[in-house]
Amino acid sequence: MQPKTKRRIRLLLKIVVVTLVIATLAGFVYEEIGRRNDRKRIPQIGQSIDIGGRTLNIYCSGEGSPTVILDSGAGEPGYAWSNIQPEIAKFTRACWYDRAGEGWSDLGPFPRTSATNAQDLHELLRRAGVSSPYILVGHSYGGLNARVYNGMYPNEVAGMVLVDSAHEEEPNRAPKFMLGKTLPKSLWYPLHLVTRAALRVGLIRLFTSSPSLPADPAQQTRRQIVAALRQQPKAVATLSDYVTSPESYAQAHAAAGLGDKPLIVLTRGKPLSPSGNAEMDREATAYEQVWMHELQAQLVRLSTRGRQVIVSNSGHGIPEEAPQAVIDAVREVVMMSRATRR
Predict the structure, then answer these.
(1) pTM
(2) Contact status, residue 158 vs residue 135, Cβ threshold 8 Å
(3) CB 3.0-4.6 Å disulfide test: which of 32, 108, 135, 240 passes with 195?
(4) What is the pLDDT of residues 130-159, one digit of tens each?
(5) Is 129 exposed, middle or buried (0-12, 13-18, 19+ CB in 10 A)?
(6) Residue 54 — very low, low, confident or very high, per pLDDT cuts 50/70/90?
């Protein structure tokens, strides 16, 4: 290779390196400015509690025992419960919280599973001074967390409401088109590193559209706030952590049952909307029967005092579509728990 050619290649490499360094630094600044704007645009609702070098957000109101702890579905901020929590707070203390990386909580370390979520919640409640016993309310993925928490800290749990809770047999029983894509376990951590790097240099923010919000927080609706929280770059990055859901399914399966603690299982009963594909619709309809009468019925048997309620006017989003069903179920479990304690 000619010396002149070598010099040109070295010069080109230097230009590439310098360009990458400048782009990275610019990305850091862009992301930091974006985070500051997010804090102004979506003022925090709740209280940040340090659980050991990072903080989680929690909001509680009401008086009485047991305390109701609300755990959202995958990718949902705790604020999604803000239509239900105030109603529960009328008859006992009630709290919603943001899991790591969601809502107003800091990101958490890898892996994010139901066990690590349970550990986070346990430390959060301890440091926030929210004393047990607890009634755990878990929607969808939050149901796995509730079951694992009960298995790890059984003396703190007085009862449970599972709201169309995820079930460990879903990956084996559901039609393939209803399941999310999975990755080999060997790629879980690399994916985590890539998404965290993309988050830090502003790439996720660059390619993620953010819902518009009224400048005055007093004019922001609950749905607008929930949508904005879902679209935060850190929340989008955290979605990749749900790739570890097979471990959460296994942890829930291995967790102990509730014994004689009161349990209500709320199950969606609203038929799915037709997709236009006859074969897919047939499979989906058949699976809905399995979901209602087999998988959800198995959850009822986690307790000797378990009961299933099929919410006929709601699909999977029961907290949003039929909030009164959740409120009524929580009230019943709270009263049963109080009667047992007396």
Answers:
(1) 0.92
(2) yes
(3) 240
(4) 999 999 999 999 999 999 999 999 999 999
(5) exposed
(6) very high
